[in-house]
Design brief:
single chain; about 500 residues; alpha+beta; five-stranded mixed barrel; about 35% helix; about 25% strand
Length: about 500
Amino acid sequence: MTEENVTPPITGERERRLAKVQAIRAAGGEPYPVRFDRTHSAAEISAIYAPLESGSETDDQVRVAGRIMLLRRQGKLTFATLRDGSGEVQLFVSQAEMGNDEFAAFDDLDLGDWVGVGGRVMKTRKGEVSVKANAVSLLAKALLPLPEKWHGLSDVETRFRQRYVDLIANEEARRIFAVRFSVLATLRKIFSERGFVEVETPVLHAQAGGATARPFMTHHQALDMPLTLRIALELHLKRLLVGGMERVFEIGRVFRNEGLSTRHNPEFTMLEAYQALADYTDMMTLVEELVAECAQAANGTKMVTIDGTTIDLSPPWPRRTMIDLIKEATGHDVHPETPLEKLIAIADELEVARNPQASAGQLILDIYEKTVEPNLVSPTFVLDYPREVSPLARVHRDDPALVERFEAVVMGRELANAFSELNDPIDQQERFVAQEALAAAGDAEAHGVDHDYVRALEHGLPPCGGVGVGIDRLVMLLAQVSSIREVILFPHLRPERN
């Protein structure tokens, strides 16, 4: 038994396959027909006929379709592996069953070709459920070869740039995106069960807001006005709470004109949810429950292992204040009311990069991000951020220098960000004005006043809690991978060099 693995250089291989296309058409055939009616998927055949005894055949006729992934020729008998979206099934193709011409046509197929196959179900003596073919139709002739079987598509950039080939060649890529699709389905189920309504809000905004980030700018010709691609979902969702929709969520694309890294892509997916008559403690319970449920649905366990470290995602997660965590990590007591000179000295001692114009609250955040966040391995809620770095969060009920905000951190990565939402229109207006001053001073991530949002608050936003979860980072965690590009079907890359 021989296995066809070796392919000529791509240019020559393409020309060889293109000649086959021309020969099919010259003979009156069509290498790209309109449709094929199948009766079963590969997975259905494998499941239904698993109890069949080895070496037995049935009279059950089936029609399957998929891509030829493997061909093993043995004279007048050929075995092939056919893969569809559900899995793989073996084809048993014999000259005696097919006839000379049809068997020769099948033997002329190449790896990567799409075929439709009719035949009877059997199980080989080795116990392999198979379709004993009696009719084969070429559905799409592949002009380019698949990656070499044993080495696969190994170049990382090529994998991301040619995701269509990556999904064909790499089982791991298919596993990762199966996790992603499971997570999205589970999230929608969780929110529906909790009485949330899924909504859609605008992607084009007149005023960027809801996060500190540099936006992508565009221009609407008919209205002759500048617009931005949204950097967050938040402000429109909270407008809906003003309108009486008490529990809303959205899973949507957001866009931030920032750098690329293993954790950042300029276009990514966010989940944001808002609940009236709740606060950030309710959002903590929601986050730990939804992460655990997504893990169980995607992987069958609440445990994940990354870089050799196993983490239990089961609730409840520890809840620690940012100030306490900094004290524990550095030995320093810090607070937004700590004199700025002292905070500068602490930051310099700890070799924390800082902006010379940074406020006390920003310095505390910088110290936390340098000394604490990277070392938070197990799921942890980090609570109570400085007011200055949280323009949309409610002032803390026990300390006006802080806000009721948390981030959920796992493996040193921010997984979720949540607030007891600010619903005082006067306070919100003042914070927007402060942000506008930062923007005027050159801060590209600060934004101006969203007057319509303030007007919405003046109609009355009920007390509420809100949360944002980075879907891509959640999938990274549950798929147990370290790069965001692994979990985005088509990540952004530098232009391809010719």
